[in-house]
Amino acid sequence: MNTAHQNIPPSATEPAPTLTALFWGFSSIGLSGFGGVLPFARRLLVEKRRWMTGEEFNAQLGLCQFLPGPNVVNLAVIVGKRYQGLRGGLVAPLGLLAGPVLIVLVLARLYDHYGAWPQVQSLLRGLAAVGCGLLFAMAWRMALAIPQKRVFWPFTVFTVSAIALLRWPLPGVMAAGLLVSGGVAYWTLGRK
Amino acid sequence: MIFITLFLEFAGLSFMAFGGATALLPELHRVTVDHHHWLDDATFTHLYAIAQAAPGPNVLVATLIGWEVAGLGGALAATLGLCLPMSVLIYGLVNHWERYSGQRWQQAIRLGVAPLAVGLVLSGATLIAQAADFHGGAWAIVLVTVVLNLRYPALHPLWLMAAGAVVGLSGGL
Q1: pTM of the complete model
Q2: In chain B, what residues touch A160 (CB-CB under 8 Å)?
Q3: Is A30 at the interface with chain B, CB within 8 A?
Q4: Are residues A69 and A13 in the same domain?
Q5: What is the domain extent for residue B167?
């Protein structure tokens, strides 16, 4: 633990945050993002609180994105563990999720009461259409970020055909797709 | 026990969530609507819409599905199911990660999984459109959203959602 923080240049990280700080820090991350909170996580952890440097953030995020599962929750576990061990690893994701889960449960109760109203159904239809558009836009952005598009885009076509058109179960599709796509990637990496 | 079934279904799904909960939408629909008949198409799209409009990570769609299936316990079981397995795994892995990072097999998986994740998000988008049975007006909103979101990335999605909600309320869909 580094306690002599007055000697640390402004670019370095601050002393270890307490459990309370972790909880509220991640609460504010969870509550500030809509449809994905990763950019807010970066802003708070790196720029505002300086709990980690940009490089550290990228390295940790690499592991979160490498593994499946909700990336931000995984990131909270890593950051929490790093500063407060097991308790931090529990408290940080709890802080991240507690507020949003409470809000969403209130909305769920409202939906149970008023969801049958035609006005509510129309409103949700409008929201779903925007949400659908945001997904298409996100897919497009992700697709553009893929290197060697002629090699790898066919795997996107394969996934869409199998999942959206043929409605095959995900486990088999992912296993087969990852085996071939990962194999091709392994091979292209070796040729460099 | 419905809670255990929910937890196990979502825990199983979490191992395939490359690209986060968003990538799971098609499989969530297959499991909850087609397979278990816990929800119908309309409810599924409504829950997705609510999760979109609420603040927080994408996992919340699981919370909502869990709630509709089995109340508070269901909401907790589904959320925990989706988060817990990878959290435990990552807790154990994080200190060993440096050793593997940058190795060829690791780069290959990262590279290979990306086009599949794109396919999953695309499938999720088409699935929402199908399940909600979009027609002219709704497709127009989809198109406008795509164009605005790609053209003006700084424009906060909340504005788009507010606009979508207003158009929806006006009965144009």
Answers
A1: 0.87
A2: 119, 122-123, 126
A3: yes
A4: yes
A5: 134-173
